[in-house]
TrEMBL record:
SUPFAM superfamilies with a match to the protein in the record: S-adenosyl-L-methionine-dependent methyltransferases
PANTHER family xrefs: CLASS I SAM-DEPENDENT METHYLTRANSFERASE, METHYLTRANSFERASE
Limits of the Methyltransferase type domain: 60-157
Pfam family, one: Methyltransf_11
Entry protein name: Unannotated protein
Gene3D superfamilies in the record: Vaccinia Virus protein VP39
A GO molecular function held by the record: S-adenosylmethionine-dependent methyltransferase activity
Signal peptide residue numbers: none
């Protein structure tokens, strides 16, 4: 398969990949709907803003996936009303199912980031997590975020891969792939079927075509300022936690999931949280944003 080269191809691949991944998405990424997940989401928004969380009125999430951010923000009372959009109908269906299970009401609809079906100045907060790097036309998307925000409204994006962090993350991924046979023997787990963790072999093939950007902090800053935002703030998070997380995810993806011992999963989860705490206390705020794996952006519509 040739890499997609037009905006329409990128959107089409994203729809097909995420439709195929939606059913197992929460399990694959360990999305937690209890206090742990809530702390993660609220912590990321707090870190992006660089201050305590205000209470927002209407929010709009871009590429909301299964609802990880909006549903936690709604449940915690950080937003009063949530609209969620995603290019994938499969993701919107999974989001609605999660909302129903949690007893929450959201407006959820299929929409592209670059063409939002809302009137001007509709929202107090526009947000997204791990979505900007999938968008073929970032300038058009940022113009839309600006248009649908009310004056004084806030923009927050988190979980965007940084260019340097992305390159550094290849080291644990390659190392883990090399060590995988030994690790599986130690875990007494059999080798995975191709594509088992993301919707089957066909989806596995699409995976490497869905991510179209990794950012420098300066690029995100430019995009926000060019669209007319001010108070632009770019920060980085997760370094040690990320290397640890990618190593474990790369190892786990090579084995049949049901055969991975629970003790390993506990170790991977607790280790990740411990290193994340270390990143927050010792490294974030001291080292340049660009070397962390994830970039966070906040800005304000004047
Ligand atoms: C990595 S997932 C993140 C989902 C969710 N925000 C989360 O953190 O769990 C990226 C999401 O962006 C959506 N997406 C990709 N391209 C898009 C586009 N052009 N417009 C809107 N959503 C898009 C995908 O369908 C997918 O649900």
């Amino acid at each position: 398969m040739q890499p997609p080269d037009s905006a329409a191809d990128i959107r089409d691949v994203n729809i097909r990949y995420h439709d195929g991944a939606a059913a197992d998405y929460d399990a694959k990424w360990g999305i937690d709907w209890g206090d742990v997940g809530s702390d993660q989401v609220l912590g990321k928004v707090r870190r992006a803003l660089g201050r305590e969380l205000p209470a927002f009125g209407r929010s709009l999430e871009i590429g909301a996936g299964t609802g990880y951010f909006s549903l936690h923000l709604l449940r915690a009372g950080v937003v009063a009303e949530a609209s969620c959009t995603d290019i994938s109908q499969g993701m919107i269906d999974a989001l609605q199912a999660n909302a129903q299970r949690l007893g929450l009401t959201v407006d959820a609809q299929v929409a592209e980031a670059e063409r939002l079906p809302f009137p001007d100045a509709s929202f107090d907060l526009v947000l997204g997590h791990a979505v900007l790097h999938h968008l073929p036309d970032l300038e058009a998307a940022f113009a839309e975020f600006h248009r649908v925000l009310k004056p004084g409204g806030v923009l927050v994006f988190a979980g965007e891969p940084s260019r340097t962090g992305d390159r550094l993350a290849t080291v644990p991924k390659v190392t883990a792939t090399a060590l995988a046979p030994l690790w599986r023997r130690a875990m007494r787990a059999s080798p995975a079927r191709p594509g088992q963790s993301d919707g089957g072999a066909a989806n596995h093939e699409l995976e490497r075509h869905v991510d179209v950007h990794a950012f420098t902090p300066g690029q995100l800053d430019d995009l926000a300022r060019t669209a007319g935002f001010d108070d632009v703030r770019i920060t980085g998070e997760e370094l040690l936690a990320n290397w640890f997380g990618w190593t474990n995810r790369a190892l786990e993806s090579t084995a049949v999931p049901e055969e991975i011992p629970n003790a390993w999963r506990q170790y991977a989860f607790r280790g990740y949280l411990a290193l994340k705490g270390l990143d927050e206390r010792l490294l974030e705020g001291r080292l340049p944003a660009g070397i962390f794996y994830n970039l966070l952006l906040s800005a304000r519509r004047p």
